[in-house]
Amino acid sequence: MFKKSKQQETVKKSVIPRNVFFMGLVSLFNDIASEMVYPIIPIFLTTVLGAPMQVVGLIEGVADSTASLLKVVSGWLSDKLGQRKIFVTFGYALSTLSKLVLSFARTWHFVLGARFMDRFGKGARESARDALIMESTEAGQRGRAYGFHRAMDSMGAVIGPLLALLLVAVYHDNYPKIFLIAFIPSLIGVLLLILFVREKRRGAEAAPVKVVLEVATVPAVKFSWKSLDKNFKLFLAVSVIFAIGNSSDVFIILRAKNLGFSLTLTILSYVLFNFAYSIFSYPAGAVADKIGSKKVLTFGFILFAAVYFALGFINQAWLIWILFPLYGLYMALTDGVSRSYISTIVPATQSGTAFGAYQTVVGLCAFLASFIAGWLWNLLSPSAPFVFGGIMALIAAAVFISFDFLKLNKKSL
Questions:
Q1: Helix, strand, coil tally for the chain in percent (to 5)
Q2: What are the CA-CA distances from residue 407 to residues 17, 90, 400, 403 (Å)?
Q3: Which SS3 state, helix, strand or coil, does residue 199 take?
Q4: Above 90 in pLDDT, residue 308?
């Protein structure tokens, strides 16, 4: 009798919660749409619109920083109102509309506007979405939950570029038409979100609309920096160091092109990166649940440094087929795992704000990182951004590791 109940408990724990499953589907369709256009945008900017590399860096920096600035605000508001879904829905809807704007791009200014809108949507939804996943999952299963979500998200990044390649061949490099078609899967994702993701009830709270109209009646959520776990503060510091060298992925795409890849091979290599990211995300989350997220994250930082140094020094294009899957493994080891790590050191009532604070800090650094990368690429060489990124990643890993060493020394004194 005891064995049977234990087996039933194991089966129950292995099942992905309903909200996590459907949020995974939403991310799958949204990422199919986003990744239909993302690997094409830098090529569209530089070859069709004639934008210089500084503009590419500027657009990606503005896009990422826009998302980042909003994440802490939307996360805090979702904590204050006790609502997650309304922010998630608004964010995905706005990103869907950005595909329509992008289809009208005739100068790089339109691309900047569309990317701004898309990242505004990302900023509005991401911290609330991560908090919703956290609230829908038991504490010991969060590595797997975030791993599943990132796996579905990155699988969209496998399907999207392949669809883009097909459409490039069919429409003979008619990029605006491809951008317009990308609107369809993005819309499907929004509909799935509205129909199947359920907001968690919090006691006797009223419906979402009523809560919004009566903000004054909602208890204030206090977010004190002093009350936060010191491990969270350390992780923010480490993440800042790492993020300054972690420029937009458009630079690894352009590096493949710089080494002699055609448009088709460049997109296929990007697909390979996302395929590796997808298949390793859930196992990485499962490992993090067993041995601890911090160990997995540290290894991810070191792997990033190795890949970036290699991207900086190689001169043979075929090595891209090895480095891009390794870069996907790095993403699997850090993206969902970082969310799992944060979920273990902040209370649920502050989770939206904490996720938002982390994402905002990292995103603001990403703006600086993309700007630096574009500047280094133009003034020094295409290798320079990657060497710089590798150095910053090693410093971040060293700081992360040394924290535990310092704690051990203090105990021994």
A1: 85, 0, 15
A2: 37, 43, 12, 6
A3: coil
A4: yes
